[in-house]
Specification:
single chain, 281 residues, alpha+beta, 6-stranded antiparallel β-sheet, 5 helices
Length: 281
């Protein structure tokens, strides 16, 4: 690899300095690294969205400097480019990133020497009100300002599955199984799997178990309740589509996928053990 696109969340401490060092390191070794322009939003965030049109022709990989949130956002923004991504963790835990600042030079050397492989991750596509968004982790049906529980019906491939009364519903990918899904009591799944997880949030019924569906299935969720109640479908904790009683959101596996660059041949079980141990110390 010799041409890179660098996405950096400058809100993270020391990230701007690291971005400059990475570009200089790659330049010294004959590679090209283009820094993604920072798009400032009204809330003052230094990195929010990346325009895929800013990625130069010939780019071979995207380096993402930040935490899991930055990597997820970049993956969604650049899905149309179908470029492999490498996450460099400048945050705390980092389930999706490959390593931290102390390992960055080793990681860059591996990329330059083509010592890597690609792990493909599925995305979810959600459509409601003539609008479609994608998610790498999950699509969450959540209530707005009211503390009233949500009421909704779930259909799979057009067939009625169940009616729920709950605080919400998480529709997750295998990648998202260790995110909100895990906190809500859902199962942990190998991120390379091809399936869809349904996990209710604080269900007000005996039907509180997660449901695992094939990635070939299509899920329709029909919102019920009072017309004035606020509810929404939230994609990866960021983008939302406001829903009203009677609205339906259709969720299925997206046509595009995310390619994650991997530098170490560690098993899913080993990675999971390391992450679980880090949370107990």
């Amino acid at each position: 690899m010799r041409q890179f696109f660098l996405v950096a969340n400058l809100e993270k401490e020391n990230t701007e300095t690291m971005a400059k060092q990475i570009r200089a390191y790659l330049k010294e070794r004959g590679a090209v690294c283009t820094l993604c322009p920072q798009v400032r939003q009204s809330d003052g965030l230094a990195y929010k969205y990346t325009d895929a049109r800013l990625v130069p022709e010939g780019t071979e990989a995207v380096l993402v400097l930040g935490g899991d949130g930055t990597l997820i956002q970049a993956a969604r923004d650049l899905a149309v480019k179908n470029l492999p991504l490498l996450g460099i963790n400048m945050g705390t835990l980092g389930y999706l990133t490959q390593g931290g600042p102390e390992e960055v030079w080793e990681m860059l050397d591996a990329l330059l020497a083509n010592h890597f492989w690609i792990e493909e991750r599925m995305l979810l596509s959600g459509t409601a009100k003539n609008r479609t968004e994608i998610a790498l982790n999950d699509i969450v049906l959540a209530r707005g300002g009211s503390l009233r529980m949500l009421r909704f019906q779930i259909f799979v491939n057009g067939e009625m599955l169940s009616e729920y009364k709950a605080d919400g519903m998480i529709v997750a990918t295998p990648t998202g199984s260790t995110a909100y899904n895990l906190s809500a009591g859902g199962p942990i799944v190998d991120p390379r799997a091809d399936l869809i997880l349904l996990t209710p949030i604080c269900a007000h019924t005996l039907n509180t178990r997660s449901i695992v569906l094939s990635a070939a299935d299509t899920v329709q969720i029909v919102m019920q309740g009072r017309e004035q109640e606020k509810q929404a479908a939230i994609f990866d904790g960021d983008t939302e589509i406001v829903l009203n009683a009677g609205d339906c959101i259709e969720i299925k596996k997206a046509e595009s996928t995310v390619q994650m660059l991997k530098l170490r041949r560690t098993s899913f079980v080993e990675r999971l053990r390391e992450k679980m141990a880090s949370q107990t110390t």
